[in-house]
Structure prediction request, 155 residues.
Amino acid sequence: MKLDAIDQKILDLLQEDADQQGAEIAAKVGLSTTPCWRRVQRLKESGVIKKSVALVDAQKVNVGVTVFVSVRTSTHTQEWFENFKACIQVMPEVVEFYRMSGEIDYLLRVVVPDIAAYDRVYKKLIANNHLCDISSSFAMEEIKFTTALPLNYAR
Prediction:
């Protein structure tokens, strides 16, 4: 789907605050309400807008400790990966999961209330998975956090 400047403005506004009223967004992008609403619907139907969610304050729900977990394995079969993926998908503490290039195979972002809670996550990770190495790094301070994607690359 080709995105024009108005689509990009709409997306910027929605990434900033998805609770904005359609008329408010329309006024900010220079459209009337109905054409703006149609554009938002088209962005949703095409999958550009995947879904709208509420961003929850991690501190206020007691998961203020962020741990980046680097995982290396010596097993690279599809069966092993499917088992590992299934293990990760049932762990709510794992909020991001990536297959990587380079020296590590997988990178996880884990949120927990404290080190003891992370230790329980760690024990689940190693329980039924054949892993070569797990390295955990605790975030000391959150400098930047955003879910907004840069749209200057959109075409």
The first strand starts at residue 65 and ends at 72. The radius of gyration is 20 Å. The chain has five helices and four strands. Residues 7 and 39 are 7 Å apart (CA to CA).
